[in-house]
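Exercise 7.
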Amino acid sequence: MSLPKTISGWCMWLYFLWIGIGAFVALPMAGTIAGILALGYAIFALLGK
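Solution. The predicted structure, written as tokens, is:
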């Protein structure tokens, strides 16, 4: 298993990590941060970075 090489890859990894941890632990601003990571993935995937 290797680490992501793009910004969009990092956003995707962090999104799923954040959602997974949030299923077991109450995280402050969970929805806001998840939304930012999802939007970051979408933007950087379209830009190709």
